Amino acid sequence: MQTLPFGSWPTPITSELVVRAAARLGEVAVDSGDVWWAESRAAEGGRTVLVRRSPDGTTTDLLPAPWNARTRAHEYGGGAWTVADGTVWFTDFADQRLYRVVPGGDPEPLTPEPAIPSGIRFADLSVTPGGQVLCVRETHAASGAAADVVHEVVTVAPDGTTEVLVTGPDFVSGPRLGPDGALSWLQWQHPDMPWDAAQLVVRAADGTETVVAGGAGESVVQPTWGTDGSLRFFADRTGFWSLYRRRPGGEPELLCDPGSDMAGPQWVFGASRTAELADGRVVVAFGRDGADRLAVLDADGPRELPTRYASFAQLRAQGTAVVCVAGGPTSGAEVVRVDVDGGGVEVLRPAPQDVDEAFFSRPEHVTFPSTDAGGVTEAHALVYPPTNPGFRGPDGERPPLVVVVHGGPTAAASPVLTTAVQYWTSRGFAVADVDYRGSTGYGRAYRDALQGRWGVVDLDDVVSCVRWLSSDDAPAHLRVDPARAVIRGGSAGGYTTLAALTFRPGVFAAGASHYGVADLAALARDTHSFESRYLDGLIAPWPAGEAVYAERSPIHHVEALDTPLAVFQGAEDRVVPPEQAEMMVAALRDKGVPHAYLLFPGEQHGFRRSENIRASLDGELSFYAQVLGFGLPPEEGITPIEVVTQ
């Protein structure tokens, strides 16, 4: 084993490999013996392809280029396609119209070209017994104002005829038909987000409507109908998203509460953390200590199914097996089929595995003390120690630390293998993926600890994480060099990155903001409908709390910013417009703070094109190399990013 400075270790986990392994798996569907899934491919410009796996194991791509099964509803999408008896319905990204593909045919439009380009969007698709598409429709107005966007539940008939079933609520999601023809859906009103308060409504066949669960202080997600006419859903009335069942005409009853969140926040449509098997048993996924478990609810209670995975999503039943997207510390996301009784796991769509597992750093879930926020005084992280079988750091030195701040901020770190993390750890960096307070997976109190405190509590937690990992309280193999800690994040994580460098100077040696928020007031004034009132809870009601927005916006406090910063931004980002990045870059230039800026034409909120993923990743590494003073492996041929000092 050779000794080289931390950060400079040669590694097979290059940006090219990261892109090659960067196909994102979306929704899964079971259609008779076929298993379908969505696959977003960076090598094809990030377009989403639908893949069908036949019972004999052969796979077939549906939708040749340029078709792209992706919806812009809520900007984050989800539920953009569905399949029944071999016929596929999908929303195409280019125009957001609804299309149908019959077996052996080409896509044909069901809905007309909207007067406003991409102004009518469809999501959360399912097929009714009558052959209609039941879905959410998002309609944009000529004004372009977020307040004028209308969200409704509609059906679209095979001839394109559209009928509005639910209108009036600010937001709707999860429309589903029960076995007896009853319609269920979720609805919520501004300024709530669906994880703050959402109602589950059922409209019986006779038109009578009942609010089954949810409302002020209670979030309901992922309602699904059972074959016996019961309605299952997750609600957080116990303090955690737990599984409930409502039988016809009855009251909700608690089915499973493991003392941790079983579901997550509804950022995208179409999530599924439970499935009913052919024999009526229910399979669920739930989180604990930073990782997921998969279990079947037997007569004696939940029985965990042993697998090598630590994350489960898109649960779908196929007989007495469950098909889902699963991943773990040594495996990226895969489509798998788990035999509930036999315990066997069949990989239907394997994750690319081009690297020896010896290069993979395994995450360790840690809990560390932080400040008091609503009685919550600790935070969590997944910590990855530097790992490379061929290299070690100099004796007596501790590794540099990359603090990763997830987006949302209502989201969570994931223990699934991602080459984008191993890109750093295999070079000699430690990585801490921080579940700061406000993250999901730890219950309602932990999630609500960020309410009114975004830009304060999250900063406390990333700073506390650095201090804890550099102290004797941390396990020896996880300790880091605090003088070489850097921070990176995208979207809301980019905001925390910018705010940490501005309001907690001296903690980090450098940072990287990927499409991060610099001006909270600008975000409140100019963002899309779904998030247009999000900051009312996280910061303060807008515009009454304008002073608080200014107080917590990095752009208004650049006099305190003297830490080198790299900024990466999509030119067509509607969630965080590029003006935000450019305001920050201008301030850095005026102050003469070392910085780098890459603007990517054609990219939106998050980078999907392979060349841009590579440029941002290698550019960030080059930036840290110049700031921290280590060399880049010459065999990778990384072009140094331009660091501007004036």
TrEMBL record:
Question: Which molecular function GO terms apply here?
Answer: aminopeptidase activity; serine-type peptidase activity
Q: Locate the Peptidase S9 prolyl oligopeptidase catalytic domain: which residues?
A: 419-629
Choose any GO biological process term that the UniProt entry carries and state it: proteolysis
Q: Name one Pfam family in it.
A: Peptidase_S9
Q: Which InterPro entries match?
A: AB_hydrolase_fold, Peptidase_S9_cat, Xaa-Pro_dipeptidyl-ppase/CocE
- Gene3D superfamilies from the UniProt entry: alpha/beta hydrolase
Keywords on record: Aminopeptidase, Hydrolase, Protease
Keyword match Hydrolase: yes
Cross-referenced SUPFAM superfamilies: alpha/beta-Hydrolases, DPP6 N-terminal domain-like
- Full protein name: Dipeptidyl aminopeptidase/acylaminoacyl peptidase
- Please give the organism: Klenkia brasiliensis
